[in-house]
TrEMBL record:
Residues 114-133 are annotated as: Disordered. InterPro entries: DNA-bd_dom_put_sf, MerR-type_HTH_dom, MerR_fam. Pfam families: MerR_1 (PF13411). Keywords: DNA-binding. This is MerR family transcriptional regulator. PANTHER family: MERR FAMILY REGULATORY PROTEIN (PTHR30204:SF97), REDOX-CYCLING DRUG-SENSING TRANSCRIPTIONAL ACTIVATOR SOXR (PTHR30204). It comes from the Bacteria. Residues 1-68 form the HTH merR-type domain. Residues 116-125 have a biased composition (Polar residues).
Amino acid sequence: MRIGELARRSGVSERSLRYYEAQGLLTAQRTSGGHRDYGEWAVDRVVRIQTLYAAGLNSRKIAQLLPCMRDADGRPNEIATPKLVGELTAERDRIDRMIADLIRSRDVLDEVIDSASESATSQPAFTHPHPAR
């Protein structure tokens, strides 16, 4: 598939796809006319790249990680080094801490909302001190 179709199917801009290729995250064959040609596996790969970026990983770390992941086409994965496994475990732990912090923040916000709601419903509605004549 051409880059435009991959962009549509993955929801990622063509510019981002070119960036992924420049970073070594995505590869394409070239047609005789020089156009990029991606296999079906590329849609899954791009979705994984997006997910890893959203998790806070940078392109260098993603480039290390991607060969260890199996794509939708079942391409064999490569063996991860112990160092990479340790780094990825640390990234997962960082994400877990961020999730825990967000849950605590949401719980505090829920308490404030509950308190504000109780206060708002227990107060009488404002009436103008001088009724219209």
